[in-house]
Write a structure and sequence with these properties.
By secondary structure, this protein is α/β, with parallel strands linked by helices. The structure holds coenzyme A (COA).
């Protein structure tokens, strides 16, 4: 896959997408959002890809937000469309992938950058990472899911504070609030994500996709998460992975999920 603003590579069953606009702190312009959509879509349809890691290039930033230059003169209609399209092509799209996505937050994750990390299924940060939703300092609000996903992850009070103050929190604070699962030195960030990915790869990707669907259902309006869990639990019984997983357990061997 060749992209202007992304690097994509695959090692064993793990693909890594690196957002590569370091001189702009990997800010998400329109082209980068479209390329991310294409990259995630292609990797999701590739059966050999079992985990996707998304990170930023350089040591300074994961993503410093949506590209402010691109929307500075937008009208109400253009602003609405920017958010709507962003949700559809990237943020909701990533959240609803059946391939697990880990965000390796290697520096500033601000605005759309933190929103992208929050759309991923979980996050790991380097010690130098700084996270925040500074949109109200620009006279706008988070528009790529930040007002919804931040309270889900850190609780309403802390999300209110972070959004109202527009200030950044450190990686350690983010861990305390449950926004990231681990904090490590920068050189250990990708190795840790790969180690976690290797643990995931050993399990049934079909069952993992079903679990993602059931977990996400809890955060989707007008959907009964318990109902989705019951349905997905039942569906699992018809899969080859279920037969292999249970047979392997009974035969006292490791499962071999195709
Ligand atoms: N959109 C567009 N360009 C951005 C950007 C963004 N969100 N964030 C950083 N950049 C660009 C800067 O304009 C600068 O480009 P230039 O060299 O052509 O002038 C380059 O990236 C480096 O950024 P700079 O501000 O010089 O780095 P810094 O170390 O002084 O500050 C930040 C780092 C992250 C604190 C600062 O860049 C910043 O506040 N960025 C905006 C964050 C934000 O509000 N995001 C939410 C957007 S909705």
């Amino acid at each position: 896959m060749n992209f202007e603003n992304l690097l994509v590579n695959q090692h064993n069953n793990i693909a890594t997408i690196t957002i590569n606009r370091p001189t702009k702190l990997n800010a998400l312009n329109k082209n980068t959002i479209e390329e991310l959509h294409q990259a995630f879509k292609t990797l999701e349809s590739n059966k050999s890809v079992r985990v996707i890691i998304v990170t930023g290039s350089g040591e300074k930033a994961f993503v410093a937000g949506a590209d402010i230059k691109e929307f500075a003169d937008f009208s109400i209609e253009e602003g609405t469309e920017l958010a709507r399209k962003g949700h559809e092509t990237l943020f909701d799209f990533v959240q609803n992938l059946s391939t697990p996505v880990i965000a390796a937050v290697n520096g500033f994750a601000l605005g759309g950058g933190l929103e992208l990390a929050m759309a991923a299924h979980f996050r790991v940060a380097s010690l130098n990472a700084k996270m925040g939703l500074p949109e109200v300092s620009l006279g706008v609000i988070p528009g790529y899911g930040g007002t919804q996903r931040l309270p889900q992850l850190v609780g309403k009070g802390k999300a209110m504070e972070m959004i109202m103050t527009a200030s950044m929190i450190s990686a350690e604070e983010a861990k305390t609030y449950g926004l990231v699962n681990y904090v490590v030195a920068q050189e250990e960030l990708l190795p840790l994500c790969e180690k976690l990915a290797l643990k995931i790869v050993k399990n049934s990707s079909v069952a993992i996709g079903a679990a993602i669907k059931a977990i996400n259902a809890n955060y989707t309006n007008c959907v009964n998460g318990y109902g989705v869990e019951i349905e997905q639990f039942g569906v699992s019984f018809g899969t080859d992975d279920f037969k292999e997983g249970t047979t392997a357990f009974l035969e006292k061997r490791k499962p071999n999920f195709e």
